[in-house]
Design goal:
It contains 4 helices and no strands. By secondary structure, it is an all-alpha fold. The protein folds into 2 domains: about 40 residues, no CATH class; about 30 residues, no CATH class. Helix 1 crosses helix 2. The chain is flat.
């Protein structure tokens, strides 16, 4: 659960999802006492432990959040952000300004 904390709002890319899956699989292998040298497939380990793939969990949390948003009233800030129009906004040319507020 801690690995996906707040994941319903993350704008993740495929490479980031892949890295999360690798991290999760390393943790599962560590908990089970398996190493890569044991040459046991990830699917076999997942089946033995009974853990769903991280991609499925991520999709489930996003759908749950989507349901919460859709049940809110139209005046709620979350719903107003859902239909925000940024077509009038233009970014400036060139490299973004340096900021130390990271």
């Amino acid at each position: 659960p801690a690995l996906l904390y707040g994941a319903e709002c993350w704008p993740v890319k495929k490479t980031q999802v892949q890295r999360l899956m690798v991290a999760e699989m390393r943790m599962i292998r560590w908990m089970c006492g398996y190493t890569r040298l044991d040459r046991i497939r990830n699917e076999v380990i997942r089946e033995r432990v009974g853990v769903a793939p991280l991609e499925d969990k991520l999709r489930e949390t996003r759908l749950r959040w989507f349901g919460h948003v859709k049940r809110r009233s139209v005046d709620a800030p979350v719903r107003r952000c859902e239909a925000i129009d940024l077509s009038y906004y233009r970014r400036g040319r060139g490299r973004p300004k340096m900021s130390w507020d990271v």
